[in-house]
Amino acid sequence: MSASTSPRLQLVQGDITRQSVAAIVNAANSSLLGGGGVDGAIHRAGGPAILEECRQIRARQGGCQTGEAVITTGGRLPAAHVIHTVGPVWNGGHKGEPELLASCYRNSLRLAQENQLASVAFPGIGTGIYGYPKKEAAAIAVREARQWLASHEWPQTVVFVVFEDESQRIYEAALAGHE
Ligand code: AR6
Known about the structure:
Layout: E1 2-6, E2 9-13, E3 23-28, H1 37-46, H2 48-61, E4 69-73, E5 81-86, H3 97-114, E6 119-122, H4 134-151, E7 157-162, H5 165-177
Parallel strand pairs: 2-7, 3-5, 3-6, 6-7
Antiparallel strand pairs: 1-2, 4-5
This protein binds ligand AR6.
């Protein structure tokens, strides 16, 4: 159930917590203390070491603002690291949501570059509980990843991980549209 689009940009259908990559990206909230959706699944699968490091980051810098990103261990996950980013809550699209979502991708990719992470897997940040329309979000995700890869060595590979069939179709279209 996977489709390869280019050596450096890939699409996989499945559970992001099962991905053997250098880092998976978490659709977190600004508290960094966990929640539902991907966030809950990552903390469950990765164990308490992730939350412990999130607490240390909170103590240092008071959480993570919308559009920003922080990095922790992956705990027991196959991925060595988790990059936590906070997507915008969808509020009609005129409250800066597109720019904030683009920042999530760029800031996550910047952390991957700084840590020389070979491969990073993203879920559809913001497209679950936070309500960002999936098609518009996929277009931003693909645009930001392509722009980053065109001008940076790290990460070498970006993987979009989609859960549902509908998301798979949406990403396939977004990737085809930018070829
Ligand atoms: N693997 C890959 N994708 C998944 C998985 C999985 N295991 N589980 C869900 N998705 P969401 P958000 C998809 O709600 O909208 C949390 O409570 C899902 O279908 O996890 O950014 C946080 O603590 C959807 O397309 O993230 C925040 O409070 C996408 O991942 C809030 O939710 C993201 O859905 C963040 O909401």
